[in-house]
């Protein structure tokens, strides 16, 4: 079975999270399921301390959104809700879903929306 970009991205983010968590979906666009998410979720390839017990949905965010979330108390790094990958010297930021982070992200997106009503 060829390894796709989506599978590599999901496995990389899986390593960033706690060992008892799973990544069922990654996103090229916000909340879009990875094309190989079912095969990752169904396969019994992990056992022991890597047995998956919890599911996270990964949302891709921009750098400005990451800065806003970090300024408002959302933690970064392995124990936090914001993670990043580096490819070709470019960082891509991802956020795991949590109630507080979701509320802050929607608040930020509402605040930058410009109304074109007259």
TrEMBL record:
It comes from Eisenbergiella tayi. This is Uncharacterized protein. It comes from the Bacteria.
């Amino acid at each position: 079975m060829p390894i796709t970009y989506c599978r590599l991205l999901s496995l990389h983010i899986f390593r960033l999270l706690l060992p008892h968590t799973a990544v069922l979906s990654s996103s090229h666009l916000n909340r879009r399921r990875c094309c190989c998410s079912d095969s990752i979720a169904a396969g019994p390839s992990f056992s022991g301390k890597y047995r998956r017990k919890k599911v996270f949905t990964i949302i891709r965010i921009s750098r400005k959104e990451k800065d806003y979330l970090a300024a408002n108390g959302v933690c970064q790094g392995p124990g936090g809700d914001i993670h990043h990958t580096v490819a070709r010297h470019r960082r891509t930021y991802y956020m795991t879903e949590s109630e507080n982070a979701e509320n802050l992200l929607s608040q930020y997106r509402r605040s930058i929306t410009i109304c074109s009503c007259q």
